[in-house]
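From the pipeline queue, job 12 of 40. The input is one protein chain; the requested action is below.

Action: predict structure.
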Amino acid sequence: MSIRYKFVPIYDNLNEEGEKVTGFYPKVVSRGTIGKERMFDDISRGSSSLRAELARSWMLMADYIEEKLEDGYDVCLDDFCTFGVSAKYRRVDRKNEIRAESISVKGMHVRVSKAINQKLKRARFEREPEK
């Protein structure tokens, strides 16, 4: 299997009319989204006991990762990715202008491991058929 792409035009809203950048760039086209239920089905290959074990392991890992993120840790799944939390705040000029109550969680970030990045660099691409 390969990663599909299509060409989309470059829209340049920053430059004046005579200096606009033109052309096309390749955009990855998703074949869809695979959720955890399908992932469990695909990995277990019909084994209901393995599927149940995968679902239980997933639940335990998700709970553990959430707990450790709430405790201020980054969670590194070796050779896969690292999860971390980012903060939402307002800009201040002096450090004593903001208290912990004024900071909230903006979201979670995921940094892909070098090993996964290296494997993905070997992926093949194929142009999506025109419709």
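Job complete. The radius of gyration is 22 Å.
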